[in-house]
Amino acid sequence: MNPSRIISLVAPSGYPKNQEDTARGLQWLRAQGYQIDNIGAVQRRYQRFAGTDDERAADLNRLVNPDNARPDIVLAVRGDYGATRILPKLDYEGLRRRFVETPTLFIGYSDFTAIQMALLAQASLITFAGPMLCSDFGAERPNAFTLRHFQHALDRPRITVRCDTLQLHSVDVSGPLWGGNLAILASLIGTPYLPQIDGGILFVEDVGEHPYRIERMLYQLHHAGILARQQALVIGDFNGFRLTEADNEYNLAAMIEQVRTVIGIPIVTGLPFGHGDQRVMLPIGAPARLITDPQGFTLTAWGYPHAI
Question: In what order do the strands lie in the sheet with 287-293?
């Protein structure tokens, strides 16, 4: 990583629960030569949020000011909840003017999905589903897989994700790559903050959601006509739930097979992205190609900003 690169922190959702994670994340990034801007984002607290709605929106709106140095990376501090509340407060036109043709990377996942969808829908900005300050850079041992994919996205004009999970059907499709946290995507249906993507490759993940609740959200996307307009649905990590006796063999695999019978597009499983231990970097809004083979699948994306 090159020295003198600027990371601007944004905290549109919850406040850091563990200050040790925060301190480790800041130390790790500084050790790689990054300058950290807007450090106050990790220090605010209001109810369960990282500041009031206005304060959290200001993290992003301040980036519009040309008097502030343009950051190389805009990094989400953490997820949780709160980003949806500030969507009407963001200066989308100002963000589009300043960043639409620059190499700045907006990076995060989980609740940050709401910001990413809105930036794509309202400002035509490609952002990255990827690591965050507290959960990734602040881990006691940052995951080598996650760090490698983070670095590749910074300095290479093309991302290739290879997964050796056996697939049921042959798939070779191309289109805009988009998606993120499933609960957030479902919550944005019918709002101006969900991009209208035709012919896309949609990826989804979530944590703490039981298979029946995952199915219900996928049905919501299906009934809204969103899935039928996509080339494929790519399943990332779904973890943090516990089956009970009442499920009677209705597990995640059974849920996926049920959804497969009704949505009319291919489902590809095994994407290493979500709330698990490993996270690839995925450019939301960039052109991509998804190909399966007898051993697994390859997802390639290009045409995104890269900082180095």
Answer: 158-163, 296-302, 287-293, 172-181, 200-207, 230-239, 267-269
